[in-house]
Amino acid sequence: MSFWDQLDAFGNASCIEGEMTLSYGDVAGLADGIFSEVLRENNKKALALIVCGRDVATLLGYLGCLRSGVTTIHLPDDMSYAGISDYITRYKPQYLWCKKKLYSEFLANEKTALYSLYDYALVDLRFDDDGVDGYEIDENEISESEINDELALLLTTSGTTADPKLVRLSYENLQANADSISQCLEISPDSKPITLLPFNYSFGLSVINSHLNSGSAIVFSNEGLTSRGFWDVFKALGVTSFYGVPYHYEILKKFRFTRLDFPSLSLMAQAGGRMPDSLKQEFYDLSKTKGYRFVCMYGQTEATARITYLPSSRYELKSKSVGIAIPGGVLSIKNPDKNNVGEVHYQGANVSLGYASCTQDLVENNVNQGELDTGDFGYLDADGYLFLTGRKKRYIKVFGNSVNLDHVEKIACEISAMAAVIGRDNEIRVLTIDGQTESVKAKILSMTTIHPKALSVVAIDGLLYKSSGKIDYGELSKRYLEND
Amino acid sequence: MSNREKYDNAFIESFEIKKEALNKGLEYQSIPQWDSVGHMSLVAALEDTFDIMMEMDDIVDFGSYETGIGTLKKYGVDVA
After folding, report:
1. Residue A286, CA atoms < 13 Å, CB-side half-sphere
2. Domain boundary among A367, A393, A419
3. Which residue in A21, A176, A328, A425 is deepest, having the highest Cβ count within 10 Å?
4. Closest chain A residue to B38 measured between Cα atoms?
5. Which residue of B has its CA nearest to A398?
6. Mean pLDDT on A95-100
7. In whole numbers, what is the pLDDT of chain A averaged over residues?
């Protein structure tokens, strides 16, 4: 049975937020309440958009959808209204579940909420009886009944740049990921994570799913690592499991975390990008001293967040590896060169159905069929441990968020016809040849949620090209990024 | 440069804001730039400027332009 349908089996497990404690039984009841009225009327499939916090209300909206067969799109709550509007126009969701504040500002209270709970509201985005227009339904519109039965959830590959492309995840994907992660991280009813990572981010959602799957207590908090509130809750409620991206570990290092004591902590896990070896070593050493596990993982949204994990007990032998395939997954290397390096291929029940870029794509079947070309390069050692050496796709990580450099370049080119974007983790550099550096920067910042600290725009004399006529990003990086 | 000027510069450069924005109302999360990323770069700037190492408790409690002055005092830096 799926983790969303079996909540009652762990009736006494709890979800905690501030002063509020809900049992899994309460959670099931409240989640069902959100869509019960509206779906009773239509009794058909629907699409909902959830603007995700890291709170219980977001969980209830998400579980409400899963339990009633409503397909959802998860978006980050720091996305601009223009960004959210783009997704609405493109995918035409019928329902919106978001903070009341966002709903009243964004929709200017034109529509009445169908349902509200805590500080969230459910809104019907289509025409209503008062004659207030939602969006027009055009001839190319698909009807809800055509949404693929397997399709549970759509996640962005890069929430930061509002790239309209979404990854299509199935009900089976979500359960497969929850099962394998529960198993390899030995998640139990005694585990107690805190929601540091948002639910629109596949790694963050995987943390929630795998703990719901195991009947763990989950602590919900919208606070960040640099907030007093986060650490007060962490200590007071005895959080056992810390899940973070490399940037979070950088902050912990800055806190001189090694000198601090969190007696309840029993697991620190990392995913969401390459963590510098020295930083990994520091946190591994700490875990040995304090007697808990430190687990590094590698994955992609296309594989419902996780592909490999490096068990704590193997760290010393394989510290430069991202680990072995998660339970149920198979790794292979495509077209290996003489050093056995090639493109990493993954096979498993957690491989997404495919991508979507418009409403018609929601009808599509499973095009991946459990097979994923990751776009990353690497090799496998004799024990099946994966070592990554590079990547094909132009993605970097900025403070934990994936950024597609091609998408940033597209935005830059709207202002400056000749622009190229290069970057490495936490550093995006836009090269332009017509000197419009200020307006290019302003445009990118207005269209994305890229942190200004990570973005620089530089005027150069000319771009560099390969003999094929394509921009030579490698050479540009050497010249304008790596020699700083 | 006085300590006050150094202190102000840390905010101006970390958040890319103007001097006029430095007032009582400038708090953690009161402007988009003062998020967790901005917070950590402000802390790094202050530590570099005054050659100090702040404790975690003081980093997470560093809640505003105004109260930060008191925090730095603990490290022997007199801004006021």
Report:
1. 24
2. A393
3. A176
4. A453
5. B37
6. 94
7. 90
Of the two residues A448 and A2, the one the predictor is more confident about is A2
Window from A53-67, A146-160, A305-319, B50-64 with minimum mean pLDDT? A146-160
Which pLDDT score, from 0 to 100, does residue A144 have?
66
- The alpha carbon of residue A390 is apart from the nearest alpha carbon of chain B, in Å, by 26
Token duo for residue A306 = 């996780």
Last residue of a domain, one of A337, A369, A393: A393
| pLDDT grade for A129, boundaries at 50, 70 and 90 | very low
Question: Does residue B61 fall inside a structural domain?
Answer: yes
Shared domain for A221 and A324, answered yes or no, is: yes
Residues 6+ apart with CB under 8 A from A304: A169, A173, A174, A176, A177, A202, A206, A350, A351, A352
Contacts of A227 in chain B (CB under 8 A): 28, 36, 60
Residues A403 and A357 in one domain: no
Mutant choice from B27, B37, B54, B64 vs A, greatest count of A C-beta within 10 A: B37
Residues A316 and A425 in one domain: no
CA distance A231 to A130: 47
The whole-model pTM stands at: 0.87
Q: Name the domain count of chain A.
A: 2
Q: Does B64 touch chain A (CB under 8 A)?
A: no
Beta-carbon contacts of A104 under 8 Å, excluding residues fewer than 6 positions away, are none
Contacts of B63 in chain A (CB under 8 A): 228
User: What is the model's pLDDT at position A390?
Assistant: 81
A401 and A378 together in one domain: no
On whether residue B57 sits in a domain, the answer given is yes
Tell me how many domains chain B contains.
1
**CATH number, domain containing residue A434:** 3.30.300.30
Q: Indicate whether B24 belongs to any domain.
A: no
Tell me the two tokens of residue B53. 């190492």
CB-CB: which of A228, A250, A256 is closest to B60?
A: A228
**In which domain, by residue range, is A425 found?**
396-480
- Whether A223 and A178 map to the same domain: the answer is yes
Residue A243 tokens, joined: 């899940």
In chain A, what percentage of residues exceed pLDDT 70? 93
Chain A within 8 Å of B60 (Cβ-Cβ)? yes
Find the mean pLDDT for residues A403-423. 88
**Residues of the domain holding B67:** 3-16+31-74
Same domain, A467 and A351: no
What token pair was written down for A296? 């590094």
Answer yes or no: is B22 within a domain: no
What ipTM did this prediction achieve?
A: 0.85
Q: Which of residues 10-29 of B touch A (CB under 8 A)?
A: 16, 28
A262 touches chain B (CB under 8 A): no
By Cβ distance, the residue of A228, A254, A255 closest to B61 is A228
Instruction: Tell whether B47 is within 8 A of chain A (Cβ).
Output: no
CATH of the domain at A387: 3.40.50.12780
pLDDT in tens, A137-156: 454 456 666 899 999 999 99
* Residue A51, helix vs strand vs coil: strand
Query: Looking at the complex, does the CB of residue A446 fall below 8 Å from at least one CB of chain B?
Result: no
Q: How does pLDDT run across A144-193, given as a tens digit for each residue?
A: 668 999 999 999 986 566 678 999 999 999 999 999 999 999 999 999 99
- Position A484 confidence tier, pLDDT thresholds 50, 70, 90: low
Chain A nearest-CA distance from B12, in A, is 13
Asked if A377 and A430 sit in the same domain, the reply is no
Lookup result for tokens 């994907």: A173
Dihedral sign, Cα of residue A118, residue A124, residue A128, residue A131:
positive
**Mean pLDDT value across residues B1-24:** 93
Task: Flag whether residue B41 sits within 8 Å of chain A, measured between CB atoms.
Answer: yes
Nearest CB to A226: which of B33, B44, B60? B60
In this structure, the answer to whether residues A403 and A382 fall within a common structural domain is no
Residue A251 and residue B35: Cβ atoms within 8 Å? no
Taking Cα atoms as reference points, which of A346, A281, A365 lies closest to residue A316? A281
Q: Is the Cβ pair A256, B56 closer than 8 Å?
A: yes
